[in-house]
Amino acid sequence: MITALLLSVFLFLSAVASHLAILGVGHRLLDRRRDTQAKLAVSLLVLASHFLVAILFAAGFWLGAQWGLGGFDKAPSMDWMDYFYFSLINVTTLGLGDIYPTEHLRVLAGVEALTGFALISCSAQLFWTMMHKGEKA
C-alpha cells in the first residue's frame, strides 16, 4: 500500500508540474497573440498536456502491475494501448468500467481521477481566459 501511495504522489506531482508548464506556454502565447491560429495552438497544447498526463499514469499502472501492486479485471492481458485507454478514461473521470484495477492499483486510479479533475479545471480556466481575451481584441 505504501508503494502505491508513493507512486501515486510521484505521478500526481509529475502530472501537475508538466501540465502547469504546458499551460504556462499557452498563457504566454495568448499574451503575444490573440488570433485564431494562436487559439488553435493553445487548444492543441491543452490536448497534448492531457494526453501526456494519461501517458504518465498509464506508465504508472504498468509499473504498478509489474511490481505486483495489482492488475486489471475484465482484461485477459493488458498491452500498452489498454493501459493508455484505461488511463485516458480514468483521468477524464468518465470511468466506463469495462476494465478496472484491482488491489492497490485502485489507489492509483483514485489519485488519477482527482488529478484529472484538478487539471481539467486548470484547462477550463485557460479556455476562459482565451475567450475573454478574444472579446477585448
Automatic annotation (TrEMBL):
Q: Which UniProt keywords apply?
A: Ion channel, Ion transport, Membrane, Transmembrane, Transmembrane helix, Transport
UniProt-listed GO biological process terms: monoatomic ion transmembrane transport
Q: Where are the transmembrane segments?
A: 41-63, 83-101, 107-128
Q: Which Pfam families match?
A: Ion_trans_2
**What SUPFAM superfamilies does UniProt report for this protein, alphabetically?**
Voltage-gated potassium channels
Q: Where is the Potassium channel domain?
A: 63-131
User: Any idea what this protein is called?
Assistant: Two pore domain potassium channel family protein
Q: Give the organism, scientific name.
A: Erythrobacter ani
Upper lineage: Bacteria, Pseudomonadati, Pseudomonadota, Alphaproteobacteria, Sphingomonadales
